[in-house]
Write a structure and sequence with these properties.
Number of strands: 2
Distance between the termini: 43 Å
Strand order of the largest sheet: 1-2
Enzyme class: transferase
Strand content: under 5%
Pfam family, one: Sulfotransfer_2
EC number: 2.8.2.-
Number of domains: 1
Structural class: mainly alpha
Oligomer: single chain
Largest sheet: 2 strands, parallel
Subcellular location: Golgi apparatus membrane
Membrane topology: Single-pass type II membrane protein
Helix content: 40-55%
Amino acid sequence: YHKQLTKETQLSKFNQTEIEAMLGSYTKVLFIRDPFQRLIATFLQGMGSSPSFSSFVQDVLDSGTHNASVAWKPLVSLCRPCLIPYDYVVMFGFHRQELGHLLQKAGLPVESILPEFTDTQVQWTYRWLSEQMFSELSVQQKKQLSHFYHWDLAAFSFSSSFLSD
């Protein structure tokens, strides 16, 4: 796009014509992650001050979607998948396969660019962590989290998410 963009420029700062021109001139890639896994990662990184995962989840639920941190805010409110026609959606845990396809489509040499991913190990680890953390939550918290991330679960195929159950 012909305008100079700074790192801080948000799409909402442009008028509709400029937005359409920009979106039409870029390849749009969206990286997504299961919302429950995002919560676990945020908790493990110490971004909440809660002593337990259950109390952290309660803090998240109490904050609501409008006051939520970007770390756990529902994806649909951050990246607007219904408004922006993304060309590629890359799901966490499938980086090697999906990024390889994306690089190939872009005409770039796949094997020489991609780092070594351990997607299978990551999937197994997060499955185990999800089971452990999910068991700490009350039935009410589980229901509230499913509601909190309802639109993410509807917009993206997180079929193995604990929140989908």
